Amino acid sequence: MDLVTMFAGLSDAFTLTTILYVLLGVVIGQFVGAIPGIGPVMAMAITIPFSFVLSPLAAIGLLIGINKGGLVGGAIPAVLMNTPGTPDAAATAQDGYPLSQKGKPLKAMKMALYASVTGDIFADILLITIAAPLSIIALQMGPVEVLGLMIGAFAVIAGLIGDSIIKGIVSAILGLLVATVGSDPQHFTPRFVFQWFELYDGLPLASVAIGMLAISEILKKLSKRFETSQSVICIPKNQPREDRSISLKEFWTSRFVYLRGAVIGSLIGIIPGVGSTAAAYLSYGLTKKASKEPETFGKGNIQGIAAAESANSAVTGASMIPLFTLGIPGSINAALIISALMIQGFEPGPLLFESQGQLVYGLFGAMLIANVINFVVGLLGLRLWSRILVAPESFIYSTSILLCFVGVGLATGGLFGVAVMLIFAILGYVMMSFGYSTIIFIIAFFLGPRFESSLGQTITLIDGDLIKLLDYPIGVFFFVAAMFAIWRLSKERYSDRNTSQAAD
Fold first, then answer.
1. What span, in angstroms and rounded, lies between the C-alpha atoms of 435 and 164?
2. SS3 sequence, 397-460?
3. Disulfide: which of 93, 120, 269, 288 matches 313 by Cβ 3.0-4.6 Å?
4. Which residues on adjacent β-strands are paired with residue 183?
5. What contacts 71, CB < 8 A, 6 or more positions away?
6. Strand residue runs (E) in 154-239
7. Residues of 195-223 as b/e, b for ≥16 C-beta within 10 angstroms?
8. Which positions ≥6 away from 109 have C-beta within 8 Å?
9. Coarse DSSP helix, strand, coil percentages of the chain, rounded to the nearest 5 percent
10. 423 CB-contact burial (10 Å; exposed 0-12 / middle 13-18 / buried 19+)
11. Tell me, what's the pLDDT at 83?
C-alpha cells in the first residue's frame, strides 16, 4: 500500500463530518455506558440500522465512538455505585468504589479516564503498525488454512466464553446452521426459504444482531424484579485539589501500570473471544502482585483502577486486528462492526486493505480521533454522566425497544425484518436462560458464509481424501491446535469443577 493511499485515508478522517459523527458516537457511548444494564454493545446494535444511510467512514466512525465511549462511561457507576456499567468495568470497582467511599469519586473517575485513553491509544498504534503486514501474510492463506483458522477460533471462543465448552460448541454450530438460510454461496441454490422471497439473500444481519443482543437482553432485565432505586449520587463540592484530580506525579508513577495493562489488553484482544473482562482482572492481579503495597489493593488504590481500565480499553483496538487481517472478529463489538461493514457492501478481511485501503486508514484515523474526543468529553462530562445514573429504568428500556423496532424496520425495509428480530430475541432469551452463549452464536452467524465457502473449497481440493490434508501443514496445525485447545480447556474446567466441589 502506497503512502498516498494512507494519507488520503487519514485526511478523510479529519473532515468535519467524520469528526462530528465520531463525537456523537463517543457521547452516546459514554451515556449508555454510565447506565448499568445498557452498555455499548446494545447501543451499537441499535445504531447499525440508522448508520445505513451514512457514508462508510462516518458509519463505522460512529460505531467506533460508541465502543470507545462505552468503556469510559462504564467506569462511572462502578466507581460511584459499585455497579459496573459494563462487564469490562467489574475490576475497576475493586478500588474505584472504596476510593469513592473515602470522598474522592472525581479522583477515581479521572484515573479511570486517563488509564482508559492511554491503553486505547497504545492498542490503536499497535493496530495501525501491524495490521497491514499481517494482512499480507493472511492473503497467502488458502481455503484449507482459513478453514483451520476459523475452527481454531471457534474452539478458543467456545472454551473461554460461558461456563460450558459443550454449550459453547452447540451455540457455534447453531449459529452456523442459521447462517445456511438463503442461497448457497457456491451454487446459489435456495435453502430453508419456505417460499419467502425475503430469505433468498439470507436472514437480515441487523435483525439477528439486534434481536439476539439488544431485545433479548432487555427481556432478561425485565424478567427480573427491579431492585429498590438507588439514592441520588452526590459528588462533594469544594474539595481540595488533590482529592478531585490526578497530579502529574501520580500519573507518572503509574506509567508502568498503564504499560503493563496496555500490553496485556492488546495480547488478549488479538485472541478472539477472551474478552476485556479477563484482561482487566489479569492486569489487576499482576499489578497487585508486583506492588510493594499489595494490601492497599481493594481499599482505594488508584493503581488498581489504572491497571483494570488500561487493560480493558486496550482490548478494544487490539480486537480489531483479527477483524482487519483475517475477517474474524476478536470480540462481539468487532462482530457488530463486521456486520456494519457488510451492510455497507464491504467484505472484512485481508482483501479490504487491497480494495479499500483508503477506507481502512480513514478508520484508523477515526479511532485516533475518537481517543482524543473520548478524553475531552469524559473530562467535561463526568459530573453530567453521574446524574444519568438515576434515570428511570422504565424510560431507558422502553426507549431502547422503540429504537430497535424503528431501526430494524428502516434497515430491512418492512415488518419482515422486525418479525425476524422478535424471533431471534426470543431465541436469544431462551439461550441465555439455559446458559448458551449468544455471543458465540452471533460470531458464528457472521462467519457462516465464509466458513461454508472454505469448507466446500477444502473438500474440493482434497477430493474427499483426508490424507491430502498433509499437503497443507499450516491448515493441519490449526486443526490440531483447535483440538488441543478444546482438550486443554475442558481439562481446566473439569479440574476447577472438582476443586470447587471439594471446597464445598
1. 8
2. HHHHHHHHHHHHHHHHCCHHHHHHHHHHHHHHHHHHHCCCCHHHHHHHHHHHHHHHHHHHHHHH
3. 120
4. 190
5. 29, 33, 40, 86, 88, 89, 116, 120, 276, 309, 312, 313, 316
6. 182-183, 190-191
7. eeebbeebbbbbbbbbbbbbbbbbbebee
8. 75, 76, 79, 80, 96, 382, 386
9. 75, 0, 20
10. middle
11. 64
- CA–centroid distance for 440 within its chain: 12
Task: Tell me the CA distances in angstroms from 192 to 177, 184, 201, 444, 450, one per residue in order.
Answer: 10, 10, 11, 18, 18
Between the alpha carbon of residue 21 and those of residues 28, 148, 310, 366, the distances in Å are 10, 38, 25, 10
At 191 the three-state DSSP class reads strand
Give 355's contacts (C-beta < 8 A, 6+ positions apart): none
The C-alpha cell of 493 is what? 474446567
> C-alpha grid cell for residue 199?
430469505
* Residue 321 identity (one-letter amino acid): I
Q: For 385-436, what is each residue's pLDDT tens digit? A: 766 655 666 676 777 788 778 777 776 777 888 888 899 999 989 998 888 8
Please give the DSSP secondary-structure letter assigned to residue 470: G
Q: What one-letter code names the amino acid at 246?
A: I
Residue with cell 476478536: 330
How do residues 425-478 score in pLDDT, each as one tens digit? Answer: 999 899 988 888 887 787 788 778 878 888 888 888 888 787 888 888 888 888
